[in-house]
Amino acid sequence: MNNQNLLNRSLKSVWHPCTQMKQHETYPLIPIQRGDGVWLYDADGKRYLDSVSSWWVNLFGHNNPRIKDAIKLQLDTLEHVMLAGFTHEPVVELSEKLAKLTGLGHAFYGSDGASATEIALKMSFHYWRNIGKVNKTKFISLQNSYHGETLGALSVTDVAIFKDTYAPLLMQSAQMPSPDFRLAEAGEDAEAFALRCAQALENYVAAHHADLAAFIIEPLVQCAAGMGVYHPAYLRRVREICSEYEVHLIADEIAVGFGRTGTMFACEQAANSVSDIADFICLSKGITGGYLPLSAVLTTDKVYQAFYDNSTVRGFLHSHSYTGNPLACSAALATLAIFETDSILQNNQEKSKLIQAKMQVLTDLPIKHLRTPGLQNTGMIFAFDVDTQNAQFAKQCYQAAIKHDLLLRPIGHTVYWMPPYTIGEDEIDFMVNATLEAVKCSL
Fold first, then answer.
1. If you compute the radius of gyration of the chain from its CA atoms, what whole number of angstroms results?
2. How would residue 372 be classed by pLDDT, with cut points 50, 70 and 90?
């Protein structure tokens, strides 16, 4: 099997995601045959450094032996059983560990980030219905937010290219001013701007709380908005507002959870525990280290008890065929074990400082809004905005990076890295230098 053969077969049979397929007449697909560490290898043997963790999911490198071995061991025991009426050890153990990590409980499982968003939205709506507050049916989110592309998730997303076409199918929601520090007034610091945005939120919630079920938010970093970072003070103030006006707070940590922001969960930078901030947390992406599809929603005991009743219709009648799949749960348990035994969060602090120091070479480029751990503790997320008039910058930068053996996927004029935590110093140097050349070629 070579690149051209696999490419031709894919174009004849696969409809690729987030893609205008006709563009592959100009920008060919890259057939990947295997992965190892931070590297992906195509069918002709050329390798590419995976600086975006394959859409932000791969935490500990491709072909990680500990995660592979956990899946293999589970495969010899139980590959799947439906979770309606049954249970199994991996899902119980994973639920216990996630509850301990978040301070929330009773994990409900799906298969991907969008399904987690759907679960949280439905659960919030149904909670208010179960306790007799049937008017609380509406949701709010941030401007420039992204929560997935199923209909419920898309309804609280604010990215036009994804949402506008499907607008007639979506429920209405309102978007609150984003605390993204790039939107602050000249001379206004990130914290002051965040609190100003929180005041605008409070004004809206005070007027509409009788109809509001929940506010869904990406804590600290709005990733699809071009890694829009904001101050943790916003989360603290939002929690106070939601508590005062009886509105649920849904923390969408699908992209930013599991160490991406420097703490296990982003909410922890605003409080001692996730449960001090969120009524619900949505998890996916890195939960299995990038090995198998899995998502989870955890919530408070108060929410859980509102569904606990003799009446079937008061239960949460939502399901996925592969809910709590044992193989996926075993991968997630192996992923959490690596965090526990290898001091990942502490090691990432040093790695973040190293990357921050090395990326200073990029400041000779026409860039602005350099996001590093020195600004808002963004951990293992690094980004900057390129000042260019090139409307095709993202595509051209991607192609230029590929020529330099780097997988880089800019969002508009934002270039970012979200590499596997296993990246080494030589690989960091390669990533930085290849990015420098790719941006130069695309201005």
1. 22
2. low
What is the four-CA torsion angle of 101, 54, 222, 103, rounded to 10 degrees? Answer: -10
Spatial CA neighbour of 427 closest among 405, 400, 411: 405
SS3 readout for 303-356: HHHHHCCCCHHHCCCCCCCCCCCHHHHHHHHHHHHHHHHCCHHHHHHHHHHHHH
- How many Cβ atoms from other residues are within 10 Å of residue 77's Cβ? 12
Q: Are 337 and 411 in contact (CB under 8 A)?
A: no
Q: What is the DSSP string of 194-247?
A: HHHHHHHHHHHHHHHGGGEEEEEE-SSEEGGGTSEE--THHHHHHHHHHHHHT-
Instruction: Write down the residue that tokens 């309606």 correspond to.
Output: 84
In the sheet where 32-36 sits, what is the strand order?
32-36, 39-42, 47-50, 406-407
Q: Could you please report the per-residue DSSP string of 140-190?
A: EEETT----SSHHHHHT---HHHHGGGGGGSPP-EEEPP--GGGSPTT--H
Place of tokens 């959870």: 257
pLDDT per residue as tens digits for the range 141-194: 999 999 999 999 999 999 999 999 999 999 999 999 999 999 999 999 999 999
pLDDT tens figures, 224-269: 999 999 999 999 999 999 999 999 999 999 999 999 999 999 999 9
Q: In degrees rounded to 5, what are phi and psi of residue 272?
A: -70, -25
Residue 302 burial by Cβ neighbours in a 10 Å radius (0-12, 13-18, 19+): exposed
Distance from C-alpha of 313 to C-alpha of 164, rounded to nearest angstrom? 34
Burial-class residue 164 by CB neighbours within 10 Å (0-12, 13-18, 19+).
exposed
Identify the helix (H) or strand (E) that includes residue 436: helix 425-440
Residue 110 contacts residue 320 (beta carbons within 8 Å): yes
At what angle are helices 344-358 and 425-440 packed, to 10 degrees?
40
What's the pLDDT at 27? 85
Q: Round to whole Å and give the CA distance between 119 and 281.
A: 11
